[in-house]
Amino acid sequence: MIRISAFLLVAGLALPVTCHGEESSSSPLLVIGIDGGSWRAIEPLIDSGRLPHLARIKTEGAWGEMRAVPPLISPALWTEAATGRPRSEHGLIDFEISGSRVASSARRVKAIWNILSEEGRKVLIVGLLGTWPAEKVKGVIISDQALNKAIDRRAHPPEALSGFGPFPAWNFTHPQQAWRLRRLLPGGSPREGDRQLAWMFLRDESLLRAAEHHLRRLRPSLFWFHLWGVDYASHFHWNDPEFLARYYEFADEAVGRLSRAADSGATVIVLSDHGFEGYVPQDGDPNPRATGRHSTDGILLARGPGIRPCSGVKASLFDMVPTLLYLQGLPVSQEMPGRVLYEMLAGDPPKAEIIASYESNRRPPETVPSAALGEEERRLLRALGYLK
Length: 388
Ligand SMILES: [Zn+2]
Fold this sequence. Notes:
alpha/beta, ten-stranded mixed β-sheet, two-stranded antiparallel sheet, 12 helices, globular, binds zinc ion
């Protein structure tokens, strides 16, 4: 059960939607996923001027709440956002399924990048959970396993990783990273308990560099990036606002860097798969160090030529694909339970064309490669409470 805090009232989430008219146009779509991003943390940081890029999107664009349906398991939620379909239909329900790493080849429905590829649009997907093995698309997929050299099909095409593999940032002692780690971690080096946060940062920074490079080169119709570290920092540092603020500053920097690397006419959408709230572990809790836990109220911010200034949007993860399809001028499938977020769209948007399904020409299922989780990952997922 989620308590509605005074903050939500201050943030306007309990107020009716208020929007202002603006003219319509279509533009490249930049989707930036901040895993676990929460208004409870963001709002005070925007107020104190520490998140300038998110502040600008909020001031000039549309914003509100992104609602998630429990259980709040990130690969299931991100796949709901990317397919528009519930996990009972898409099938990617956890990090590990039947002893194997979650695999895109086990997904039973198309993701937005499959649909857009088939429509001849270029896509660039980077780091999103559940995208390994990288599927063949028109464009590039750098999977969530891009840095895991123990397994194959980390990216499509494989050469998309050249120049990034081994990623220079994938090194705790690399001089270019030392100052960043100093900013993120007390003492400038990962303490035992924070080694996993350093792992997250190096993962996020590595994927961010690859994303910036391919974004400039590829000019995709749809770009989708996944930043993971805010989630980890929120689990274990929720009661240390300064510590948490530093990872949020990095997330904000990522939004700025990706916006600069994209076409200046891009529409930027920032969302989280779930929010966060304070938490006191009970006796025998598998996560005795945790101070924060997932909540169903995530974030949504959007700004660009397709978006009008608007506050109090109430969205669900299922609304992402219908809205992205609409912004690409494509019909919405009646199999998708979500809706087009018309209230945040510019102009006087006509209703979406509805089709029965995008699945009719679905390719035959691929062989599912089986790969066990690595030891570092297993430790991380155990710390987050996903594995026993
Ligand atoms: Zn989490």
